[in-house]
Amino acid sequence: MEKKEFKRIGVLTSGGDAPGMNAAIRAVVRSGLYHGLQVFGIRRGYEGLLEGEITEMGNHSVSNIINRGGTVLLTARSVEFNTPEGVARGKAMAEIFRLDALVIIGGDGSFRGAGDLHRLGVPVVGIPATIDNDIGCSDYTIGYDTAMNTVKEAIDRIKDTAYSHERCSVVEVMGRNAGYIAVNCGIAGGAEACIIPEKEFDVGEDIIKPILSCRNAGKHHYIVINAEGVGKTMEIAEEIRSKTGISTTTTILGHQQRGGSPTVRDRVAASLMGAKATELLSQGISGRIVAMRGESVIDLDIEEALNMKKEISEDLIRTGKILSLY
Ligand code: F6P
Predict the structure, then answer these.
(1) Dihedral class, residue 207 (left if φ above 0, else alpha if ψ from -120 to 50, else beta)
(2) Angle at the Cα of 134 (from 3 to 147), degrees rounded to 5?
(3) Which domains, and CATH codes, for the chain?
(4) Cβ contact 299:276 at 8 Å
(5) pLDDT in tens, 6-26
(6) What is the pTM of this model?
(7) Residue whose CB lies within 8 A of the most ligand 1 atoms, among 47, 133, 172, 174, for a mutation test
């Protein structure tokens, strides 16, 4: 494990925003100050690092943000930072501002950037934050719970109208190439079928057949959850409509899934992981990713963490299917 003395640290949020990022920023600032570090906020993620949008933060500057969605530091998906020249410029800017270490709050793209900085000798610590929950090294990512609750509420509303009109509703949820939101919200929303990118599917077998067996048993409203990584939501709805004659609507939930006040789970996970990041830095430790393993906060070597993979529980998928039987 690398050990150096860190006095001035920078914190940034990068990639897609996630509810709870503010709680993580607050935790980094307040616990950093508690450990005697000076903390600097970098605006607009890696874009702001490249542009030198860096200002000192105090306890007061993170007051009244734990309850807010989005990120007060703003975020971006930096194209320039994806190049070796961009990363080198980022390192140079950190040196100009005399930042001894950086805390990177974000998802897999942000962690790739953190890995690049680390390999150039910039001390970094990463905190996983994305609604997709698709970071291999961590059981949980900041924002996931809030997003799932937003989706659950949307499905409940869609279900009311699907029931009243005796319709089928196909609901597309976010998750990039992962089906974590879809599979959990399929269960929570009582869906008849749930399609995720990790599993091959057949529209006839996996969607139309369950809908028709529900209809034969007397049901008249149906929810199908489709993960965005599968796509083709309109085509799937059209196939249901043409093959069953059932009136079928589509709803793409989109960016509402990224907003909203974070749940308790997200606020607490973000607070614990933010505090862990500065605890490591106060001990002179960097090149780490902070992660959740069950309810515990752990830290892992960054290179090891970046290569880790995780899989959706087969039990969740199987249980979702069993419980949709009518
Ligand atoms: O990673 C979070 C996420 O919301 C994904 O679920 C989605 O695929 C993507 O970001 C959308 O990104 P953008 O807001 O840049 O369109």
Answers:
(1) alpha
(2) 115
(3) 8-143+262-306 (3.40.50.450), 147-258 (3.40.50.460)
(4) yes
(5) 999 999 999 999 999 999 999
(6) 0.97
(7) 174
